[in-house]
Design a protein that fits this description.
By secondary structure, the chain is of the alpha/beta class. The chain has 2 domains: about 190 residues, Aspartate Aminotransferase, domain 1; about 250 residues, Aspartate Aminotransferase, domain 2, CATH 3.40.640. Helix content is about 40%, strand content about 10%. It is built from 18 helices and 14 strands. The strands form 5 sheets. It has a 5-stranded mixed beta sheet, with helices on both faces. α4 runs parallel beside α5 and α4 crosses α10. The radius of gyration is 22 Å and the shape is globular. It starts with about 30 loop residues before the first helix and ends with a helix. The structure holds pyridoxal-5'-phosphate (PLP). The site of pyridoxal-5'-phosphate has 15 residues, from α4 and α5.
């Protein structure tokens, strides 16, 4: 896919798969979308699928499965204990990651619960390249503190640094020396850092982190949920990895980690998750929590059909033509938006295209959730659902004050192998229109605010009547178009 040259015109991402099963999607008129977003409390998580045209909320559990995955699901060996399907999955994990022990779990955050309950004690610290919402929540619930050790480049919206997900090694060392190694529960490295725009870390950076871990006797936990994109970027951006296969890079990374966990809703294009390690001690410590919270050790809350799909999904992730599909579509979207002056996170990362709401709607204060307002406005004018990744996704501090996010992003995730290039062009067209009419968008305020993970089911209202003004302008410019 990456090496196909076009004879004339610009190169465009070329799919190395074809659709053989399709699902009808609805593009509702803007008047219906207005009712839908109002009913959803201006929270895109609460929209109904029947009101959504393109669902770019997430890539979690919504990537297209392959024919081989679907076929494998029919062969599943269903049993509570000792299922042959589990053995297949365990063997695939050993083959790909080279880890002896495997604990299944129903999704990524379930792995985080087990790891945090096992290793985070009150007052301990977990340094990470950047937090993810659920990973931080589990550390905090267990009395730990998250310390983000990112490089200066990480939070720059416009950058040409190929590995913005890297950890700052001198800062990491400084933190450990200051706090004492016994206070560090473990170091967590996240592949394809979700909250800063799907930005990757390099193999070299992980090697440096490993050295620090060895020096101070600290465990390295690797969140491989977004590994597929990170593998693509390492192969294409890291000189020494250019001639390595995806399999070889995976193994190099895996060998550096003590514990690897993943959400199979992302890695492996199915639904589930798991933790693997070569440490018998760590395995035994976590094992009983799997039976307590997830299910027996040979299914861990997953259906055998999903486990069969993960086996094939992991195998297919070792194919460069599979892992490059997401990043190439995202790059196309980022480049086209940049040409039109829309502020986007660069370089293009994995996971999705990230719009910088701080600049897009720079007239909205952070306390009025600019990224949340932009997500609601974008749905209204396009039927495309994105996700707020900003202050709404943070939690208030102990005194009830807002924790203002480092970044205010509208994330438009690119579910792999799901949308065509014409869909992506439609999504771009409506953002460009919205950018030209950005002055019409104003803020949001909570009317129902849960204290934990409020972005999932909190409800908001607009700070003025801006939604109706947007609908009016849309009708002026688009006539009776959907
Ligand atoms: C990097 C990362 N870690 C962990 C998780 C949690 O996984 P899950 O949604 O399967 O619980 C996610 C989900 O988006 C993620 O992106």
């Amino acid at each position: 896919m990456s090496h196909v040259k076009f004879y004339y015109g610009d190169s465009v991402p070329l799919e190395m798969h074809k659709a053989r099963i399709v699902q009808k999607i609805n593009l509702q008129p803007i008047e219906r979308r207005l009712v839908a977003i109002e009913e959803a409390g201006y929270n895109t998580f609460l929209l109904k699928n029947s009101d959504i045209f393109m669902d770019m909320l997430t890539d979690s559990g919504v990537n297209a499965m392959s024919d081989r995955q679907q076929a494998a699901m029919l062969e599943a060996d269903d049993s509570y204990a000792g299922s042959g399907t589990f053995t297949k999955l365990h063997n695939k994990i050993k083959e790909i990651f080279g880890k002896e022990y495997f604990l299944p779990a129903h999704q990524g955050r379930a792995c985080e619960n087990i790891i945090s309950k096992s290793f985070v004690k009150k007052g301990t610290i977990v340094p990470m390249n950047y937090h993810f919402t659920t990973s931080k929540a589990h550390v905090v619930l267990n009395g730990g503190v998250v310390e983000e050790i990112f490089t200066e480049e990480a939070l720059k919206i416009k950058s040409d640094q190929p590995f913005k997900g890297n950890m700052d090694i001198p800062k990491l060392r400084e933190l450990i020396q200051k706090q004492g190694q016994e206070k560090i529960a473990f170091i967590r490295l996240e592949a394809g850092t979700n909250l800063i725009g799907g930005q990757p870390h390099s193999l070299e950076n992980m090697e440096e982190i490993r050295k620090v871990c060895d020096e101070f006797g600290i465990m390295l936990v690797y969140d491989a949920s977004l590994l597929a994109d990170n593998l693509y970027f390492i192969k294409n951006r890291e000189e020494k990895c250019k001639n390595m296969s995806i399999n070889q890079i995976t193994r190099k990374l895996a060998d550096l980690a003590d514990i690897i966990y993943f959400s199979a809703r992302k890695l492996g294009c199915a639904r589930g998750g798991g933790i693997c390690t070569n440490s018998k001690e760590a395995y035994l410590k976590m094992r009983e929590l799997v039976t307590l919270y997830e299910g027996f050790l040979t299914y861990g809350g997953m259906s055998v059909r999903e486990m069969e799909a993960i086996v094939i999904g992991l195998e297919e992730t070792m194919d460069e033509n599979m892992v490059n599909q997401g990043p190439q579509f995202i790059e196309f979207m980022v480049n086209e938006l940049q040409k039109k002056g829309v502020p986007v996170v660069t370089p293009a990362g994995g996971l999705g295209c990230h719009i910088n709401a701080m600049e897009f709607v720079d007239h909205i204060p952070q306390e009025q959730y600019p990224a949340g307002a932009l997500a609601a406005a974008y749905y209204l004018v396009s039927g495309v659902r994105g996700m707020e990744r900003g202050t709404m996704s943070e939690q208030r501090d102990e005194d009830g004050n807002e924790t203002l996010s480092h970044m205010e992003l509208l994330r438009l995730a690119m579910p792999r192998r799901v949308y065509s290039l014409s869909h992506v062009k439609y999504a771009i067209d409506r953002i460009v229109w919205l950018y030209e009419n950005r002055h019409l968008i104003e803020g949001l305020k909570f009317v129902e605010e849960p204290s934990v993970l409020r972005f999932f089911f909190g409800k908001l209202i607009t700070t003025s009547n801006w939604q109706n003004k947007l609908v009016e302008k849309f009708r002026q410019d688009f006539g009776d178009s959907l």
